[in-house]
Amino acid sequence: MQNLEAGIALVNKFSSLLDLSGEEKSQLMALQSNTVQLEADSDLISFSEPIPFTYIIQDGWAYSYKLLANGRMQVLNYHLRGDFIGLYATVFRYAENSVRSLTDLAVCRIDPQEIIEVFRNTPRLAAAICWAAGRDGAILGEQITRIGRRTAYERTGHLILELLRRMESVYLAEDNAFEFPVTQELLADTLGLTPVHINRTLRTLKSEGKISYSKNHIKVLDRKALSEATGFDPFYLEQTALPQNLEGQIDG
Amino acid sequence: MQNLEAGIALVNKFSSLLDLSGEEKSQLMALQSNTVQLEADSDLISFSEPIPFTYIIQDGWAYSYKLLANGRMQVLNYHLRGDFIGLYATVFRYAENSVRSLTDLAVCRIDPQEIIEVFRNTPRLAAAICWAAGRDGAILGEQITRIGRRTAYERTGHLILELLRRMESVYLAEDNAFEFPVTQELLADTLGLTPVHINRTLRTLKSEGKISYSKNHIKVLDRKALSEATGFDPFYLEQTALPQNLEGQIDG
DNA sequence: CGGTGTGTTGAAAGGTGTCAATGCTAGTGG
DNA sequence: CCACTAGCATTGACACCTTTCAACACACCG
């Protein structure tokens, strides 16, 4: 795990959105003053239970998921560096889904009350938090579309491209490649398929020269072809500008 | 279309969450002062275009959707009385998905700037709006799970139960029955299936005595059996209490 | 009364799931 | 340093849920 200055993750994320003042940056750093290390495969948030904290990932992967009868599982979304976990602890008493660490995790633990303080005192940061929440919603919408109206082949490639784009945006991808700690079984639970079929689909993508992969590592070899074959349009990940009326409103 | 006092929809929705003061109620009514009538099948919001307004539904149905190549379509969510449409106009410059009226629609049109005013001046209402956004996110999460890890039979029954519950919560269902303006084709685009298979699934549900339906109308005949058969747990729709720390914080 | 959208049904094809076995790799302990 | 184990990846054969294609029924509406 990289040795990061705690708090830099969120500053980076918001810097693409706002021109942060020194004051705002230190507010964000203060928000992330309490870093905690977690082991892989531990639940940060458990469905239907109170949500004690909000977190911001400094390093490692986590994922939101739901459990069904029969042991069926559905992954809703992955959480990477700079992403919030349990942001809705501020307005929900109980968790709507569980969140689990996929790798060892460095997270900043935040008391929901601190989020309320941000909303009260620093409107521009509050807007940035709302924007982050909206982006998470956009990712969920794309996940619905991926599962509901794409073939296994398209789903798999599309998700890989989403994660590549997201990893790039936090400087964790290079040369179309990134660390990928997701097992094929978890991939199946993400894309609504079986592990066996995920395996065959990955194999097809590999044999076509679109990707290469090994345990914990994935590389997109022909990004253009893969984007076209899977209908990937990164628009939903790239909204990095607030509406102009908002910019004017919250500056004062 | 019923003749509703404009603005009562949102007051009702938030009343289950907060004990609204007279002042707050009139603020909410003021927010909904501009009612507009729209015809069925018209787009309120179009993907990738600027979002001119936020809306609150007073009467009628709408749905969020995405379009893919090949004319494929995916419905993300339905919007009923009291629901927001385009809430993220406040923080996003462009729309992440389209929203279309399913029936004739009575909506209150809100300038996103007014939402900002609410956040600045009435923190309890701001919290309620965040709560509504969170609830929409929870519904998206359940939609992912429904499509990703349930059979056609389960998906169909599960969605019917969700809509029944949501219609009940805005007093539009009675005796387990409600108006249901969704065609089988749109249902298919909601559940990631084909119209033909939706037809067969509905037929099965009917023949088992779990539901009855006719054009524009649906009734759940055996709610308990249907809930069990489809694994429906309404928890994600029923969070009507803010965290205690929030309640304390925003009262002052 | 004909047109158009929606619902219904049958037969066949196909994508994905199921079952089961094998291979591979990393870690563990003797 | 080498068995041994556990977890994950890979592969084949077959079953089945869902799709596809096509035709027909029905209701509403101008």
Task: Please specify the SSE layout and strand pairing.
2 copies of one chain form a homodimer.
Chain A: H1 8-15, H2 22-31, E1 35-38, E2 43-45, E3 54-59, E4 62-67, E5 73-79, E6 84-85, E7 98-101, E8 105-110, H3 112-121, H4 123-149, H5 152-169, E9 173-174, E10 177-180, H6 184-191, H7 195-207, E11 211-214, E12 216-220, H8 223-230, H9 244-251
Antiparallel strand pairs in A: 1-8, 2-7, 3-6, 3-8, 4-5, 4-7, 9-10, 10-12, 11-12
The structure holds a DNA duplex (30 and 30 nucleotides).
Would you write up a description of this structure?
2 copies of one chain form a homodimer. Chain A is an alpha+beta fold and 252 residues long. Chain A is 44% helix and 21% strand. In chain A, the strands form 3 sheets. In chain A, strands 1-8-3-6 form a 4-stranded antiparallel sheet. In chain A, helix 5 packs across helix 7 and helix 5 packs across helix 8. At the A-B interface, strand 5, helix 3, helix 4, helix 6 and helix 9 of A face strand 5, helix 3, helix 4, helix 6 and helix 9 of B. Chain A binds a DNA duplex (30 and 30 nucleotides) through helix 7.
Describe what is shown at a glance.
The structure is a homodimer of 252-residue chains. Chain A contains 9 helices and 12 strands. With 252 residues, chain A is of the alpha+beta class.
List keywords for this structure.
4-stranded antiparallel sheet; about 45% helix; about 250 residues; 9 helices; alpha+beta; DNA-binding; homodimer; globular
* Overall pLDDT of chain A: 94
What value does the Rg of chain A take, in angstroms? Answer: 18 Å
Strand content of chain A: 15-25%
What oligomerization state is this entry in? homodimer
* Biggest sheet descriptor of chain A: 4 strands, antiparallel
How many β-strand runs of chain A? Answer: 12
Q: Would you list the SSEs of chain A in sequence order as H and E?
A: HHEEEEEEEEHHHEEHHEEHH
Greatest chain-chain contact: A-B, 61 and 61 residues
Helix content of chain A: 40-55%
Low-pLDDT segments of chain A: none
> How would the global form of chain A be characterised?
globular
